[in-house]
Amino acid sequence: YEKVAGAETWAGSFLQMPNAIDFAKGKKIKVKVWSPKAGVTVLLKLENETDGNIFLEKTATTATSNAWETLEFDFGDQDTAKSLHKVVLFFDFGVNGDGSLYFFDDIEQSN
To answer: Nearest to residue 86, comparing CAs of 25, 28, 45?
Structure first.
C-alpha cells in the first residue's frame, strides 16, 4: 500500500470478505506488516457490508522499521455480534501521506 504524498490522514485500503467475520473463531486479528518507519499507528477497522456506521476498530503501533512484524488487534472488549464483512487498514493513521510504502500479509484470527 502506498500512502501517496498529500493523501488524507484517513487514507487506507480494504478487503471485502464473502461472509461476515465469525468471532467465535477468535476475537483477535493478527496482521503481518512491513513499515519503513517505527512508531507508525496502524488502524484496523472492521465494517458492515452495506452500512459504514456499523464497525469496530483498534489500533496498534509498529515497533520496527524496514522489517516484517506481526501486529495484534484484540476485539475482545467490543460488541462482536455485529455483522462485519470489510477489513480496512489505515497505515500512519492521523498523518497525511508522504509517499511511504507499507506491506501487509497473513491476516488471521486467533485467541
So the answer is: 45
